Amino acid sequence: MEDSAVKTRWFDNIWAALIFFTRLPFWRIHQPPQASYKAVVEYWPLTGWLTGGAMAATLYFGSMVLPHAVAVIAAIAVRLLITGALHEDGLADFFDGFGGGGNRDRILAIMKDSHIGTYGVLGLIIYMLLLGTALYSLPVTVAALTILAADPFAKMVTSQLVNMLPYARREEEAKNKTVYRKPSLAAGLSLTVQGLLPMALMIWLTGVPWYLFIAIPPLVMYFLYLLMLRKIQGYTGDCCGAVCLLVELAVYLVACSMQ
């Protein structure tokens, strides 16, 4: 009975992550208990297998029948549809808050505001231009493999913020009314496997220098961590979404630098 209960809990947590991080109707099949949503970060990279896989497949197979640039845009659009632009919304709020805010309370208030400001608009434009140009500059097969690796890897790296920083608001002030729990040692090992397995596969198939991918994107996360520590002494959901996208972008830029 105990083993069955553990399996059920793992299943509920995974299902909660799929519901939380995508807009696909997983909730129609099964609705996990509310407590499972506190553990969604522990399976965040696993959802990256889904979103990254859909994005990579769209780019790879789309390039067979469409111009490469169109396939790149279609791949980005597919992920936006799957996630409901969840992380892009966080990125815009992050740029608005840290760009326009001064003190901690002001930054948090701006990030919670549903309206997008100048910093958010400019940040999203620059991010999308860099993302699209980076993917376009890579050979199709390399780009698809890099997407498969970058999405889960960025989510694995970003999930460390939950251990490194406290939540910056009170739980009742959270946008989704949920504060992620700190992953246990077992959950941390699971996160590592989820994030590194696709990266190892990409490095093995392409033969690129592994140390650049393993070192540079985490450095991006670390500098953003220092910014959050100094400015708001914690993290928010918007911060996690922004860091995830910027770490992922760093993977693509590293890949571009090797071409």
Explain what the structure shows.
It is a single chain. With 259 residues, the protein is mainly α. The protein has one domain. It is built from eleven helices and no strands. The protein has helices at 2-21, 44-62, 68-83, 86-100, 104-112, 118-137, 140-158, 161-164, 185-206, 210-231, 237-257. The longest helix has 22 residues, at 185-206. It starts with a helix and ends with a helix.
Radius of gyration: 18 Å
- Helix residue percentage: over 70%
Overall mean confidence score, pLDDT: 91
Helical stretch count? 11
Q: Unreliable runs, pLDDT <50, ≥5 residues? A: 1-8
What is the H/E order? HHHHHHHHHHH
- Described by the principal axes of the CA atoms, the overall outline is globular
SS content category: mainly alpha
Count the beta strands: 0
Number of domains: 1
The N- to C-terminal Cα distance equals 54 Å
